[in-house]
Amino acid sequence: MSDPVLSIENLHKEFMLSHSGSASLKTMLLWWRKRRMEHLQVLRGISFEINKGECVALVGKNGAGKSSLLSLIARVYKPTSGTVTVSGRIAPLLELGAGFHPDLTGAENILFNGVILGLSRAEAKRRTSQIVDFAGIAHHIDAPVRTYSSGMLARLGFSIAVHVDADILIVDEVLAVGDFEFEKKCYEKLDQFQKSGGTTLFVSHDMDAVRKVADRCIWLKDGLIEMDGAVDTVLQQYLGTP
How high is the pLDDT of residue 242? Predict the structure, then answer.
């Protein structure tokens, strides 16, 4: 019997692109009659469900709509039409530095993000040492995050996301910037998260990573679901497509 924690129904997302070529507000106002607007259809009516405890990978070429879909689920964007129904707390890890204030220290950003992701301030404080230990950046935790490398941002972002008691973890390619040891630790944490009933949805262009952690794969192509099924079956078709 299915136990969906995420349900997507007939989801569409469209962006408006301006081709005015204007580089400033003044130029745009002076040449408004010459503006040409383009409707960019990123998602064109997709539907699927994800059950509790599943680890689902999204694959597809650049521009297929993967990151836009994750942003819709994380409520960064609003759908043009269709519905996204989520049961439980989401911890999104969508891009490096997202949600971090560059002038705050790592420790301050832990509190800031922990509260945004649903913890009380007291809970966030209690978990700070665990988050810092997992990220392995204790020597830099009192420095502003604008001084952090991409790897350090990935470490901190992932560590916060997996320590806030989320029901659904959303990961978009950020683990690719970590070193081997930290990447291994992240995969072990994802495995523990899934075994405890957590649900993971992630985007990756690393097919080895998809095979390692996912038990289901959704292939997006031109804003539509091309295939949804077992990892090896979907990847065989996806990798065989020019």
Answer: 61
Q: Domains of the chain (ranges plus CATH)?
A: 53-239 (3.40.50.300)
HEC readout, the chain:
CCCEEEEEEEEEEEEEEECCCCCCHHHHHHCHHHCCEEEEEEEEEEEEEEECCCEEEEECCCCCCHHHHHHHHCCCCCCCEEEEEECCCEEEECCCCCCCCCCCEHHHHHHHHHHHCCCCHHHHHHHHHHHHHHHCCHHHCCCEHHHCCHHHHHHHHHHHHCCCCCCEEEEECHHHHCCHHHHHHHHHHHHHHHHCCCEEEEECCCHHHHHHHCCEEEEEECCEEEEEECHHHHHHHHHCCC
pLDDT at 230 over 60: yes
Q: 132 or 187: which carries more pLDDT confidence?
A: 132
pLDDT of residue 28: 58
